[in-house]
Write a structure and sequence with these properties.
This protein is of the alpha/beta class. The protein contains 8 helices and 7 strands. Helix content is about 30%, strand content about 20%. The longest helix has 12 residues.
Length: about 220
């Protein structure tokens, strides 16, 4: 039975128009507060996806990658690595912008590698013709193993399509973009044996940086 409320994490690099997309989705149905114990702003809102399904949307702080180098970025990674967090998303929406898509895709691939259902939003689509940019969306969807919404938050286009994709998030592939094990098969096989119930890429992120919430159960 489909959920009546799905949790959506809105994620993106700074200056891609992520908050504009959040505003288009939620309208006046928003709340602003702070994360417990820190001064980082927490914005969340809701929108109706269908007569029986609504989305709870959290606008996460802007981040360039899941290799945290600030308190803001640490908020993002600690949420995405902790399935017990009340805000852990059913689906992630990664907002990119059309002129810097290649740079923005690093964050998308990292979240996809956590095997979270992930939708790619390409914002500022109204600038494509002006800049002479063409995108083969079916090809990109196949290569990135996801669904893509072309959006212009400035022109207020593409938001209805995004809502449809959110409504059908369970059909998204959770196949990662990267097989982390190929970097060092022996090392990652040892990790797998020690922590058989954890994603290898998740373990790699925890090991390589300071995330303070996780109590991993070692075999």
């Amino acid at each position: 039975m489909p959920k009546s409320t799905i949790k959506v994490a809105l994620i993106g690099n700074p200056n891609v128009g992520k908050t504009s997309v959040f505003n288009q989705l939620t309208g006046l149905n928003q709340q602003v507060g702070n994360y417990p114990g820190i001064t980082v702003e927490k914005k969340q809102g809701s929108c109706k996806l269908s007569p029986t399904v609504k989305a709870k949307i959290i606008d996460l702080p802007g981040t360039y990658s899941l290799n945290a180098s600030s308190i803001d970025e640490n908020v993002v990674i600690e949420l995405l690595l902790n399935k017990k967090d009340e805000d852990f998303p059913d689906v992630a929406v990664v907002v990119t912008e059309v002129e810097n898509l290649k740079r923005n895709l690093l964050l998308f691939t990292q979240i996809k590698d956590l095997e979270i259902p992930t939708i790619l939003v390409i914002n500022m689509a109204d600038r494509m013709q002006l800049k002479g940019i063409e995108l083969d969306i079916p090809f990109l969807e196949k290569e990135l193993k996801t669904k893509i919404a072309l959006v212009s938050s400035r022109k207020k286009t593409g938001i209805d399509n995004l809502k449809t994709l959110l409504l059908n998030y369970e059909s998204l592939s959770t196949e990662p973009c990267l097989n982390a094990s190929v970097i060092d098969p022996d090392y990652f096989n040892n990790l797998r044996r020690a922590f058989p119930n954890q994603l290898v890429y998740k373990l790699w992120l925890v090991i390589t940086q300071d995330v303070n919430f996780l109590n991993l159960e070692r075999k």
